[in-house]
Amino acid sequence: MVLLWREMLIEDKDEQVMSSEMKFIQSLVSYFCWIGLSRKGIVIPWMWEEGSWMHYNLALQGSNINNNCVYITATKVVAILCTKQFFFICEKNYTNFDLKLSEDK
Predict the structure, then answer these.
(1) pLDDT of 69
(2) Any residues with CB less than 8 A from the CB of 94 and at least 6 apart, and which?
(3) What is the predicted pLDDT for the residue at 94?
(4) Would you say 31 and 89 are in contact if contact means Cβ atoms under 8 Å apart?
(5) Residue-by-residue DSSP string for 16-37
(6) Which residues of 8-42 are buried (b: 16+ CB within 10 A; e: fewer)?
(7) Domains plus CATH for the chain?
(8) In this protein, which residues make up the domain named C-type lectin (predicted)?
(9) What residues of the chain score a pLDDT lower than 50?
(10) Strand pairing partners for 77?
């Protein structure tokens, strides 16, 4: 299962917009899903898979020294051990070209 999601990468988005995006994603999720956010240790900032730092303050549950990967459920955002296996949500940029290709099939 892969859901499409525009990751929270843009620094100047305000917290209300980010909260709305998170609620939208949570409304689509029926399983635990990794969101591509991790860190190398408790003193290292959270980083997205593509290499940018997370600029939004998530209310993470379970954030301790060993929980260095983040997953999302319909009701919460949780830091957990990176060795756990979950579904994931990935980013896809949507364009009119993508839509046109789909309609041609």
Answers:
(1) 92
(2) 4
(3) 62
(4) no
(5) HHHHHHHHHHHHH--S-EEEEE
(6) beeeeeeeeebeebbeebeeebeebbbbbbbbeee
(7) 2-104 (3.10.100.10)
(8) 10-91
(9) 1-12
(10) 72
Distance CA 50, CA 53 (A): 9
Number of H helices and E strands in the chain, helices first, is 2, 6
The amino acid at 63: S
- Tens-digit pLDDT profile for residues 8-38: 444 445 566 666 777 777 777 777 888 888 9
Say if CB 74 and CB 29 are below 8 A apart: yes
Helix or strand holding residue 51 (H, E): none
Asked if 89 and 1 touch (Cβ cutoff 8 Å), the reply is: no
Token pair recorded at residue 83: 């060795």
